Amino acid sequence: MNIGKRFIEESLELQKRKSPLIHCISNSLAIKDLLKGILCYCGIPLISNTIEDIEKLTYEADCLLINTDILTEQNVNEIERAIRVAFFRGIPIVLDISEVNLSFFRKETVLEFIGRYNIDVVKGTLEEFISLLGEEKSKLLNSETKIKDNLNLRIQLRSFSRKYNLVVVAEADDYYITDGFSEFYIEKQKSKIDEKTDSVVILSGLIAVGISSSYQKEQRIKGVLVAVMTITTAKKILEEKVIEEDKLSIENILTEIENIDAEKINKYSKISYLFVR
């Protein structure tokens, strides 16, 4: 796969032309930044004000995005109905498995969703993915090791991706993305921006916009890659601007995302690629 400037331009242009509707089901504490990120990336966010609205908005949307930290025993049935609507309509579904490792209920519910429905992208931290892989497997994985250097971990993540026909986006020292056959590594440098802001939630929205702008499922990996490269580029540009730490905010990152283009991504984002049979 050629991941050059033209590849990036095509993905960004598709988003501008389509302006996809993204139905977001997320924690109320994170929803504000999530919605802003979607808007800055040429998407249009939809949010349910009541449980009763969930199915209705999914019928209208081009993509369903669920942050699993909102899952409770009280709302799981309603959220599953939204997933079922998205599944039967054939629109992409993104699961941000935030805090799935903190609750047995969340872990089992997420695995049921992934097993029953055609989930397109699962995004989370390395620790959260290890939790999904199961207790016995997790003993074999070293979460302190870089994903790139941990062959056993990569095999497990590729197998998970291939088994459920979904794209894995795992965040550790770097971003690791796989569709079960190809592996991508996008450099994620540690910075004062991550220490001063909580920008993790924004990426899920960018991914949702990216994949819902693609007309074929096989092309959705492109939208995922460009979304991850976009947020890493925005942070690197901010680092170069040397903004005073006490002035750093989510708004700074959102401004860079809004002004992103293929030239900036091509310059700042470092990506490597490996095809595995």
TrEMBL record:
SUPFAM superfamilies: Ribokinase-like (SSF53613). It catalyses: 5-(2-hydroxyethyl)-4-methylthiazole + ATP = 4-methyl-5-(2-phosphooxyethyl)-thiazole + ADP + H(+). Pathway: Cofactor biosynthesis; thiamine diphosphate biosynthesis; 4-methyl-5-(2-phosphoethyl)-thiazole from 5-(2-hydroxyethyl)-4-methylthiazole: step 1/1. Its EC number is 2.7.1.50. GO terms for molecular function: ATP binding; hydroxyethylthiazole kinase activity; magnesium ion binding. It is an enzyme of class 2 (transferase). Keywords: ATP-binding, Kinase, Magnesium, Metal-binding, Nucleotide-binding, Thiamine biosynthesis, Transferase. Its cofactor is Mg(2+). One of its GO terms (biological process) is thiamine biosynthetic process. This is hydroxyethylthiazole kinase. The lineage of its organism: Bacteria, Bacillati, Bacillota, Clostridia, Eubacteriales.
